[in-house]
Amino acid sequence: MSRAKINFIKLNQEELSAKIALLVSETSRVIFWKTAPRYYEGKAFLFDVRQRKTYLTISDCNIHLRLSGERICLNFSINDIDYFLRGKVVEQEEDNMQMVVELEEHCFRVEKRSRERLLTYPVYEVYAYLKYAKNPATNVVFFNKKEQQSRDFFSEIDNLQKNRIQSLTSDLHLGESEDLVGFRVEDLSSSGLSFFANTKEKENILDALGDGKFSLVLNFEMQVFNLEEASIVYKINYINSQFSGVPMYKIGITFKASPSLKRKIEDHSGITVDLVDYQKEFEEFIKNE
Q: What total number of domains does the chain contain?
């Protein structure tokens, strides 16, 4: 498999401080290493800024090496975005496995979705299905036939289709007040996807989801993935000749990262995306900074 070049984007000092504060507030995992591929883990415990320098205290360190005075690389993730930076270990308490790192001025982020993204339409048959509460006035979400003729998207699902789709997974079995909607996926990552929806689909179904979390089922060429903690992150007006001039919306959805879906995407894209790749490339990148 090939590996796409990783794009590191520099953050300023204010952005770094904000990210470290969030990291500590959630006691999030921090990965650190001196030389890849060997790495260690700890938890973000405390941070403070002294004389324009940021210090991060890492607790529960999974390490028994002396690193005082050593320069190390660090990595953490927030909202599925990876951050990389360097720092110098200024204190290390072996007994309680805690150390303090003076962070260097610049931090770099990598948007993983941009590397893992697979354009699925029109090459792959990938559909996203979700359940929604029926509108008492109508059980049908109308679908403009011009859209259907120009693209393979669909929303109106007859009973025969429903039975076939529900046979894929028990997560799609419907209650009396529920119905099913499906969209053909445009692009996909291990933690997000996008598709197109018409105005009625947006207003009657997607808007009703609000900012809440929901689950959906992905059918990637008859391989099923049950995706949890999904939420809508954008709904953008989209007018294009491929829809015969009919107004549409591009919908972006994020969900809890799925390792099995990640492997599926890698199988089709030929791109591997593992931690060691990031570590090695960051080491090479930072040498030139």
A: 2
Written as one string, the DSSP assignment of 4-26 is: PPP--EEE-HHHHHHHHHHHHHT
61 and 108 share one domain: yes
Question: Domain holding 131: CATH number?
Answer: 2.40.10
Q: What is the pLDDT of residues 141-186, one digit of tens each?
A: 333 334 433 334 444 455 656 666 767 766 667 667 777 888 999 9
Cα–Cα distance, 233 to 248 (Å, whole number): 16
The DSSP line for 37-85 is T--EEEEEEEEEEETTEEEEEEES----S--TT-EEEEEEEETTEEEEE
| Total Cβ atoms within 10 A of residue 161 | 13
Same domain, 68 and 93: yes
C-alpha–C-alpha distance, residues 119 and 187, integer Å: 4
| Predicted TM-score (pTM) of this structure | 0.52
